[in-house]
Every structure is written in C-alpha cells, then in structure tokens.
Known about the structure:
Layout: H1 8-14, E1 21-24, E2 28-32, E3 42-46, H2 61-79, E4 83-87, E5 103-108
Antiparallel strand pairs: 1-2, 2-3, 3-5, 4-5
The structure holds guanosine-5'-monophosphate and zinc ion.
Zinc ion (ZN) is lined by residues 4, 7, 9-10, 49, 100.
Amino acid sequence: MKRDPDCIFCKIVAGEVPSQKVLETDEVFAFLDIAPVKPGHVLVIPKEHFATLLEMDADLAAPLHKAVRKLAAAAMEATGAQGFNLQVNTHKAAGQLVPHVHYHIIPRHEDDGLTL
Ligand code: 5GP
Ligand code: ZN
C-alpha cells in the first residue's frame, strides 16, 4: 500500500497524528474535519495514498461509496440535517489543500446560509 511520509492524512491513517475517527475498514478511513464548515463535517479517504481522485485506484470507488452512504446517513441523523453535500476538491485551483484524495460530507439544513 502506497504511503507518503510527508502526508498529513497518511499520518492520520497510521495513528501518528490524532483524529476523531468515525469509521475504519480494510480500505477506508473516516474522521471529523478539524475545521468543520458545518457540524458533523466528515472526511472519507482511502487508506492508501493517492494525490487526487484522478490517480486513485478505481476499485476503491465502491468501498468509499459504501462508507460515504453509511456516514452521510449517520451524520444527518446525529445533526438533524435534512441533506448533505458530497465534495471532492481536486487540485489547488478547486480548493484542494491536502494532496491525499478525500471526500467531504457536509450535513445541511434548510436555509443554513452555506454557499459552497
Ligand atoms: P481540501 O481543502 O483539501 O479539500 O480539504 C482539506 C480538509 O482537511 C479541510 O477541510 C481541513 O480542515 C481538513 N484538515 C486539514 N488538516 C487536518 C488535520 O490534521 N486533521 C483533520 N481532522 N482535518 C484536517
Ligand atoms: Zn497520504
């Protein structure tokens, strides 16, 4: 499994940097965002290091999707949200700051004022 020694998310997967883990499987790791844009903001990542969605092994799409559905439902339940956004910022121009592919799950309430 590829890992980047300088990657903050690889360090989180390895337990070298603490996180509030919400799910872990053989392939997937999920944790609360350190700077949530809304309560319940979760990041879902492959454990293996891929800089962006474009490099990611396509076989990981299914386990990631499964985790996203489970966690989005849990985040909505926990926050009383009526919906959620699923966002994958890809490359710096689109706002990607951490170069390890990650899916943002952002719980949403009607008229919560957030524009993404
Ligand atoms: P991006 O802008 O790359 O799509 O999103 C990166 C996300 O990672 C941001 O929402 C940021 O708050 C989150 N983040 C960055 N460093 C850490 C960290 O060390 N721990 C956690 N839990 N989240 C982080
Ligand atoms: Zn990484």
